[in-house]
Design goal:
GO terms for molecular function: hydrolase activity. This is HAD family hydrolase. InterPro entries: CbbY-like (IPR044999), HAD-like_sf (IPR036412), HAD-SF_hydro_IA (IPR006439), HAD_sf (IPR023214), PGP-like_dom2 (IPR023198). The protein is α/β, with parallel strands linked by helices. The chain folds into 2 domains: 166 residues, 3-Layer(aba) Sandwich (Rossmann fold), CATH 3.40.50.1000; 82 residues, Orthogonal Bundle (DNA polymerase, domain 1), CATH 1.10.150.240. The protein has a 7-stranded mixed β-sheet with strand order 3-2-1-4-5-6-7. Helix 1 crosses helix 5. The chain is elongated. The model has no long low-confidence stretch (mean pLDDT 96).
């Protein structure tokens, strides 16, 4: 069977949004609200085990019980309402970072999106992020030329169960009217890998500083990045047929995943 679509995760895969966008935005929101705590890289790596930003905030409140100062009363009245307030402020800062060009695409992303689109493959974004969060990324992170090549966006607010559940991928497959083996997922985390593989979709991993130590044994290929002609990708597990991830390798992976007739 032929490869017909690439399904991209967003945060950490298309761009290193966690390190350059989300975590700085949380910390800026905390500072704006007069809160004394900040989320450093090690703590944030642990918080990323929660599938959404609101869940990270709620988990942090309950697990770490930070000093809240003047916000203690609001939290005691409604944790959820306070979390929503903080998350809205954080999202405003995140959109500002995107507009200012502070969240660049990872190496090889623009190249692969163009190559796949021009070869007739369909492109989708399958992410735990809400569609409201995806929209500014498409506009400012990808830009018009690349964004118009995306034929489907599936956000975490559309489905009851986010990754690591397979529901987002199954929904995307249904919308695209494709079998799992006609697609390849491109992810950066064990959570995303688990979701894609549970939906039957073969998966390529591009690690980042937050996910480097995770278990990717179920992936078809693990890379340090998608790579560019002058910046080759480093293979961490599996086999790649060219210096940067391209259609030759992806089609081979799809063929190997197709059912034997």
């Amino acid at each position: 069977m032929a490869l017909r679509a690439l399904l991209f995760d967003l945060d950490g895969t298309l761009a290193d949004t966690e390190a350059h966008g989300h975590r700085p935005s949380y910390n800026r929101a905390f500072r704006k609200l007069g809160l004394g705590f900040r989320w450093g890289p090690k703590l944030y790596r642990r918080l990323l085990k929660q599938p959404s930003g609101r869940e990270r905030l709620l988990h942090y409140l309950r697990r770490y019980q930070p000093e809240l100062g003047e916000h203690a009363e609001a939290v005691s009245e409604s944790e959820e309402a306070w979390v929503e307030h903080v998350h809205r402020l954080k999202s405003r800062y995140f959109r500002r970072y995107l507009r200012q060009g502070k969240v660049p695409l990872r190496p090889g992303v623009a190249r692969l999106l163009r190559e796949a689109s021009e070869a007739g493959l369909r492109l989708a974004v399958v992410t735990n992020a809400s569609r409201a969060s995806v929209k500014p990324f498409l506009k400012y992170g990808l830009g018009q030329d690349l964004a118009q090549r995306i034929s489907l966006v599936v956000g975490g607010d559309q489905i009851a169960a986010r990754k690591p559940a397979p529901d987002l991928y199954r929904y995307a497959l249904g919308k695209l009217k494709l079998a799992p083996y006609e697609c390849i997922a491109i992810e950066d985390s064990a959570m995303g890998l688990q979701a894609a593989r549970a939906a039957g979709v073969p998966t390529v991993i591009t690690v980042n500083s937050d996910t480097l130590e995770q278990d990717f044994s179920a992936a078809s290929l693990v890379l340090d990045a998608l790579g560019e002609p002058d910046q080759p990708a480093r293979v961490l597990a599996g086999r790649m047929d060219e210096p940067q991830l391209g259609l030759k390798t992806l089609r081979r992976i799809a063929r190997s995943a197709a059912p034997r007739l």
